Amino acid sequence: KTLKFFQVNFGFRQPYKILVDGNFIHAVLTTGNGDVESTLSKLLMGSVRAFTTRYTLHELQSLGSEYKATLAAARRLERHKC
Prior knowledge:
5 helices, 55% helix
């Protein structure tokens, strides 16, 4: 219902381009919901292109070995230039 509002009033269309940060990627991985794009696709009920930034990758690298899987998942996403 809310997504329909944005489609009509602001011209949102599929595939939805979503910018995600390290905390979101880590939360998706720790809950076991699969990968980021499939989780967002289920949530928005449409096709999605997930993006991250190089600054997110640097942040995840600085957090250490606990975030290695998160960093690997973030590297698989497309990068958006800032």
